[in-house]
């Protein structure tokens, strides 16, 4: 399905009067409105290829139909999202689910949609049909050097695919760990994982980054070998300047202070990328901002403050990615909601009077500090986000237009009602 620019233009025209009324407050009263809109236009969030189809749990899966059946169709879906919001100009691929048969053609297709390739993702958490050795007891940590070798080679192959597509980062997420006390020698697992990562690191092109993603539990429920930001940070430090920690918001134990983790990693120059999502209990895949929007705002405040302190470009210095899975929603609708939630949190963080905040901190005035934060959080910044999307060529309300155009029904018409996206 092709989204004609005229659809967006007509839709925006129909909404323009109401939008301008809400925006006029901002343009007339708020001096920082213009720079915030500009920053929002520049800020792009990568869509993971595996979030375009319905996920599921171990109990079942309820596909919504019209899901992408190939890498080409995944790119088309992200292209559609990007055409609607002009804020999802990148796709994050997964190998082997997205092996490109013709990298040049895939690159061209992505360029036609205005997309670039964000971090590549390797997979040593599943056994593939043609695979010689099993990852049942881990991959980069495995006791058998031959299994480690196989996992290292796979990661190097993922880097090669990424080079062909113009990506510049590899995300390594490991399910390695143990399910029962006593099963694993933690120190040996750490050293073996480090040794394997060193070989992968050595295969990175000079301008590439390696993101070490951590996760507190699942699928291993007793220990995870890269289980928290401390171990990820250790690996990244030992590996060298091209290695960074990747923070997936859903990968912490309940109530962890993620904003503080982010602040320290950024301060140390070791924060590399993000997987945005939300969680209520121990899940890691809900819509960003759907459960704890205040936490998302506090995280963005640390990001903005920390990046500014280091003179970093907000849009370009870190890998901004969504990592989600959808059980009951149309995946594309959910991704539009996630991107918007991220933009809102970013805009609210940009709104905070940070000079006054620093003053409140230095004079030990927690009441004033809280007022400054909540003042920004309670401000409706939706007109700013809508204006940024409109100026960039997108729709004033991407989700409303998506529904108005019956996109899902059209995709079902093109691809069928019983589609299974490649991947999870
Ligand atoms: C798994 O829980 C991690 O979040 C991974 O980042 C990701 O979901 C996986 O690599 C998908 O391929
Ligand atoms: Zn993740
Ligand atoms: Zn996850």
From TrEMBL:
Superkingdom assignment: Bacteria
- The keyword Isomerase is annotated on this UniProt entry: yes
Output the Gene Ontology terms for molecular function.
isomerase activity
Q: Which UniProt keywords apply?
A: Isomerase, Manganese, Metal-binding
The protein in question is named Sugar isomerase
For this protein's source organism, the top of the classification is: Bacteria, Pseudomonadati, Bacteroidota, Cytophagia, Cytophagales
